[in-house]
Design a protein that fits this description.
The chain is mainly alpha-helical and 401 residues long. The protein contains twelve helices and eight strands. It has a three-stranded antiparallel sheet, with no helix packed on it. A three-stranded antiparallel sheet has the order 5-6-7, with no helix packed on it. The protein has a two-stranded antiparallel ribbon with strand order 1-2. It is globular and about 70 Å long. The protein starts with 6 loop residues before the first helix and ends with a helix. The relative contact order is 0.11. The N terminus and C terminus are likely disordered.
Length: 401
């Protein structure tokens, strides 16, 4: 087992943990430019909001109780998949108006830094005031926008919110869990490394459970796909990415209500880091096979070069989509089965839905581990292709003989 102390390895682990924090701060429009645009008159906004609420009430009035319940279940599933600015464990009360949890810090940049507690949002129902600006969470996308004192939103013809969106560096529920997993992994494997030093390369405590997994990643993933010569410099990243994804997936199956690997910003960050490591550690043979494919006619080399170059981008993109889609699909199906218990409300349908949800939960435990394995295995394959050494001259001489 190889436990390296190089600072580069810690930097890579830190990037894995904290890059989603930056990724989640994307804005649809430049806040500085938008600030110069005169806001819509409050009267017209209120009028639009009033008409919109009336239309929604009219639509809901025409729906049956069953259709209303169906819409409510879909909204609940969508809300479960979204990130949030507070950590709510569960809600109770007649209408779920009481929440058990704790607020998180909101950090916005909008012509200056705004820091306040998410309790000001009142679980998405209130308007937060900070240094003369007002902010509210939009229910449809969960993003924070600058509004007026009454929390009104304006929309364009396509239904997109046109309010100024500040840069959001808040510590949301998903980011908090990423930090917790990062700290947990640091102390867990730091303890495993120390136990190796103290006990003559024999793991103790929790390390006895994780040691076979570490050895499996080294002996059955890293060495066969990367090679004995180069695998050591990639081991830290492969171990970090495997346990990071696995632990986050397992937390997603708990009642904490987190869906971290089902967040596209997180999976995209992991894929980008994998792509950067592959690109900057690749040998000249790797680029030679991309831009000037050996063994094919010269005209075909010009055709294959852009295709191969595009393939280097598609590979990490497939990593991102595979992890994201599998975890989101699992959450949606599981939540739908749980919702069926309330739909049937019968001595046969409800227990059957509970049984299916229980079986699917067991399957999701396997999927949580399987997705971490697949991501690590494919990353190792990409690294192996990047450092593979080709002996073209020997092959050509053998072909002539």
């Amino acid at each position: 087992m190889v436990i390296s102390k190089k600072p580069l390895h810690f930097i890579i682990a830190a990037l894995v943990a904290f890059l989603p924090l930056i990724s989640s701060a994307n804005t649809d429009k430049d806040s500085t430019a938008a600030a110069t645009t005169p806001p819509a008159p409050v009267e017209s906004v209120d009028h639009a909001q009033h008409n919109e609420s009336k239309s929604h009430e009219a639509e809901n009035a025409n729906l049956t109780e069953e259709q209303k319940a169906d819409l409510e279940r879909k909204a609940h599933i969508k809300h479960h998949l979204m990130d949030s600015h507070d950590f709510t464990l569960f809600a109770y009360g007649k209408e779920g108006e009481k929440h058990f949890g704790f607020p998180l810090p909101v950090i916005l940049y909008d012509n200056g830094l705004h820091i306040f507690s998410s309790s000001k949002f009142e679980h998405g129902e209130g308007v937060a005031e900070s240094n003369g600006n007002y902010y509210k969470i939009n229910h449809h996308n969960g993003l924070v926008y600058r509004t007026d004192a009454e929390g009104n939103f304006t929309e364009d013809a396509k239904g997109h919110v046109t309010n100024v969106k500040p840069l959001d560096f808040s510590i949301t529920k998903n980011i908090l869990m990423i930090m917790i997993v990062g700290v947990m992994m640091f102390f867990l494997f730091r303890g495993l490394g120390k136990s190796y030093q103290k006990n003559g390369s024999i793991a103790t405590g929790a390390g006895r459970f994780f040691e076979p997994i570490v050895l499996y990643i080294r002996d059955d993933i890293a060495i066969p796909n990367i090679g004995e010569k180069h695998y050591k410099k990639y081991m830290s990243f492969l171990l970090t990415i495997f346990f990071f994804i696995w632990f986050l997936n397992m937390f997603g199956l708990t009642p904490l209500g987190v869906n971290i690997t089902g967040n596209l910003a997180v999976t995209a960050s992991l894929a980008v880091i994998t792509y950067l490591i592959t690109t900057f550690t690749a040998k000249k043979d790797y680029w030679g096979h991309i831009f000037w494919m050996p063994g094919v006619p010269v005209p075909m080399k010009f055709i294959l070069a852009p295709i191969e170059l595009l393939g280097t981008i598609i590979k990490p993109f497939s990593l991102m989509i595979r992890l994201y889609a599998n975890m989101v699909a699992g959450h949606i199906v599981l939540m739908s089965l749980i919702a069926l218990m309330y739909t049937f409300n019968s001595p046969i349908g409800s227990p059957l839905s509970f049984f299916l949800a229980f079986v699917l939960s067991l399957l999701e435990i396997l999927v949580a581990l399987l997705q971490a394995y697949i991501f690590t295995m494919l990353a190792a394959l990409y690294f192996g292709a990047a450092v593979e050494e080709h002996h073209h001259e020997e092959h050509h001489e053998g072909a002539h003989h």
